[in-house]
Amino acid sequence: APQTRLYHEKVIDHYERPRNVGSLDKNDINVGSGLVGAPACGDVMKLMIQVDDKGIISDVKFKTFGCGSAIASSSYMTERVKGLSLEEAGAIKNTEIAQGLSLPPVKLHCSMLACDAIKAAIKDYHKKRAAGGKATKPGH
Ligand code: FES
Ligand code: FES
């Protein structure tokens, strides 16, 4: 089906042209960063989010020292979370990424890395805001 082909091309695209590679200013109080590793293979992913005053993720960047599936997963995740609230972004499951990219079961942990990374970045953001004495509850 034409649609399957289109979809397939989109997946390949994430491998070949990963989106939002890079990093954000870690000293910015509105930036949270998550650094996670996959025990299964030792691959590492760093994901940073920029949060606006409404609690919406306005920018996101990642660096992955890992396999192609981990790179595609993080690329996919960055596109998925941009414009979402922290709550919405934190609720994304790795299975959604794995299905979206048609990852084989053996590559499931690669999508978990992206899932863990966004959760760690959100946690770091909240921690930083609280420590900065300007703790707010975005989205409420
Ligand atoms: Fe470990 Fe992909 S093989 S992250
Ligand atoms: Fe989602 Fe670990 S796979 S938090």
From TrEMBL:
Keywords carried by this UniProt record: 2Fe-2S, Iron, Iron-sulfur, Metal-binding, Mitochondrion, Transit peptide
Stretches assigned to the NIF system FeS cluster assembly NifU N-terminal domain: 7-130
Keyword Transit peptide: yes
Cofactor (UniProt): [2Fe-2S] cluster
GO biological process per UniProt: iron-sulfur cluster assembly
Record-level GO cellular component terms: mitochondrial matrix
GO molecular function, one term: 2 iron, 2 sulfur cluster binding
Subcellular location: Mitochondrion matrix
Annotated metabolic or biological route of this protein: Cofactor biosynthesis; iron-sulfur cluster biosynthesis
Family (UniProt): Belongs to the NifU family.
Role of this protein: Scaffold protein for the de novo synthesis of iron-sulfur (Fe-S) clusters within mitochondria, which is required for maturation of both mitochondrial and cytoplasmic [2Fe-2S] and [4Fe-4S] proteins.
Listed name of the protein: Iron-sulfur cluster assembly protein
Species name: Rhodotorula toruloides (strain NP11)
